[in-house]
Amino acid sequence: MKFSFGIRLPLSISAEGTTWAVDGAQAHPFPAAKGPINLNQGNPNTLALQKNGAGVAFTFPQKTWTQVQDQRAWGKETFVLAYCYYFPGKVTAPEINYRLIIGAP
User: Residues with Cβ < 8 Å from 42, sequence gap 6 or more?
Assistant: First the structure.
């Protein structure tokens, strides 16, 4: 079984100085010009967005697959934050707790 979601962000965030970071590493700006499709792919515990000292952080219960992607390659005017978790084995009543922090990550 798989659980996934994606969050679409407007291209305007690149001009506004919004950054993304995984696991507390160095923050990266969203690019103003079309470049690589995948800005990041990996298995972090935390994915954070920040602008002017405030932001949002997604903390996952365990390392799982995430992606920060530029959608301009497909003619879309968005960036996407994607998340996917595969439940191990046969799961009848899964329970996963997610934490979403609004404010300074």
Answer: 22, 65, 66
